[in-house]
Amino acid sequence: MPSRRLVLAAFAALPAQAWAQGQEPGKSEVPKDTVTPEAFLRDIYTPYPNQDFKGQPFWQVDRFFTPDLARAIEADMREAKRRGEVPRLDGDPFVDAQDWDIAKLAISVKTEGPHAVGMVSFENQGKPTEIKLDLVRTGMGWRIADIKWPSGTLSELYKK
Q1: Cβ of 158: how many Cβ atoms within 10 Å?
Q2: H-helix or E-strand spanning residue 115
Q3: With 144 labelled, which of 10, 108, 121, 132 sits at a CA distance of 20 to 30 A?
Q4: How far is CA 108 from the centre of its chain?
């Protein structure tokens, strides 16, 4: 399985126009105004059980995250690169792991107006994992405002 650092390094080296799955940046197979929060999460998670999948393109943070969170991730990645260090997010935030072998993927969503909470559960290398994603509807469609893993939250990484 790919290591978290290898995945991040590979994404940092890719040109901004490249898209791991042949999609244009910010584009979804479903028009953004009709995408549900569940469809948004399925678009992110469905490739993970594929053994050949190497992870989502993290350098394209504005496709996944709210503007504030995307800016924090990008700033941290730039600063870490400048220092020659590993960024605070040194793994795949969608599976909370550096390595993965995903099975038994399940996604549920509760929507309340422009906010939604997604619960994603799966087995990673045989270990049950549950991740909670706070979603917000933006002008660009649904975006992740925070990810809550068993070990902490994505937003906590950038408050330190």
Answers
A1: 16
A2: strand 115-124
A3: 10
A4: 16
132 phi, psi to nearest 5 deg = -110, 130
Long-range contacts of range 87-91, CB-CB < 8 Å, 24 or more positions apart? 87/8, 88/157, 88/158, 88/160, 89/8, 89/58, 89/154, 89/157, 90/4, 90/5, 90/8, 91/4, 91/5, 91/7, 91/8
Tens of pLDDT, residue by residue over 51-94, are 999 988 877 899 999 999 999 999 999 999 999 999 999 889 99
- d(CA 156, CA 59) in angstroms, rounded, equals 20
Threshold 0.90, pTM exceeds: no
> What kind and span of H or E run contains 44?
helix 37-45
